[in-house]
Amino acid sequence: MPKRQIVFISTCAILTSLVLIIPSFSVRAILALLLMACVGALMISFFLARNYSQEAHLQDEHFDPKEEKSAAESFALSKLFAATMGGMREGLLVVNKDMRVVASNTAAYRLFNPTPSRLEEQRLTELTRNPAIYSAFLDALKGIERSGVKVETHGPERLVFDLRVMPLPGTNGGGAEGALGVFFDVTRLERLESVRQEFLSNVSHELRTPLTAILAFVETLETGAMEDQESNKRFLAIIRKNASRMHSLIDDILELTAIEGGNVQVRSAPIELHALVTDVISSLTNKAFAHGIVIRNFVAADALVYADARRIEQMLTNLIENGIKFNREQGQVTVRYEAGARDRIVVEDTGEGIPAQHLERLFERFYRVDRARSREMGGTGLGLAIVKHLALLHGGEVTVTSELGKGTAFTIHLPPMRDG
């Protein structure tokens, strides 16, 4: 086996290992580009070796035992090459000058999901109708390297790829003999970017509303309303309310960011749930009284749950407070505990209920069933998202059921108490 091919194969194997274990997409992209270059060089080396072998065979009519050894080495080399390519997370596709696939890996097969059992020998037009893919490979055959080509597929789910295609030069210095393309899956990055933009848009909107009210009433006071004692007290109360809303929003944003960023640790221990629920109810008594709501603690006195007391208190405060806000007049909120394969803490209200189409998105950041009413009551739109993430940190989850005209029940599912 030529030393050059051994070096190329070893380099490909090392780069593939790094691509598999390194989580950073940007670093993986750079390594994959280096891998593309090595694969291209290796394929050119194969082409040169094959052509040389064919020419030598035509010139020499006598059988040379070395040819059998070379064939065995080439077979072993192809097996190692296939294993290296199969381990890549990025899809790899090589076409010849006739636009037929001559090499691919498992990731590329999953990407195209063809009817035949293999991609090889299929024309590119038989695998995809995507013009971005076809034009990128066509340009590469003309000697033009393409990078940053955005490719979208619309199968069972929408996938987004960053396609980079490089030409494979001919053996005699002529035009390209083929083209090699790598498909980088950037679907997750696209989704994260979409979530980030949506989050920034929502934050801007949520802050702009109270800030506009504050500025408007300050301007009113500055232009003469200070002399009107009755009006300026009302204006100051509105300013305070909106400033408090901004403060709560910022606190919730920081809290949610810390939780999602993995900066919040859960310190679980046995908790006397009845006493904890009683404390939460006591802290919300005035708010419940103002809305004419009765809160009932139906948790047994000896009930124990294994969780972080501070975080369970935070979750229950959010859920009970929502039950107060969105309840009907003279309604009630009840808290129950149910033991089982998973411990369940249920917070149920007697409100108007939530339409079924909203339930799936209820725990999304800033999602509101009734935006106007929620803002009027001082909600930040982040409370349920915080509850969801805190439940996940405990190894559990939170679910919701609702019936229009009867009320809504939120259930916190927790791992059961540990023995000892």
Task: Give a description of the structure.
By secondary structure, the chain is of the alpha+beta class. The chain folds into two domains: 3-185, Beta-Lactamase (2-Layer Sandwich); 266-420, Histidine kinase-like ATPase, C-terminal domain (Heat Shock Protein 90), CATH 3.30.565. 53% of the residues lie in helices and 20% in strands. The chain has 14 helices and twelve strands. It has helices at residues 3-21, 25-59, 65-86, 106-112, 124-127, 131-141, 187-222, 229-260, 273-283, 285-291, 309-325, 356-359, 371-376, 383-393, and strands at residues 91-96, 101-104, 146-154, 158-169, 176-185, 269-272, 294-297, 304-307, 332-338, 343-349, 397-403, 407-414. A hairpin with a 4-residue loop joins β9 and β10 (343-349). The longest helix is centred in the middle third of the chain and has 36 residues, at 187-222. Residues 50-63 have low confidence and may be disordered.
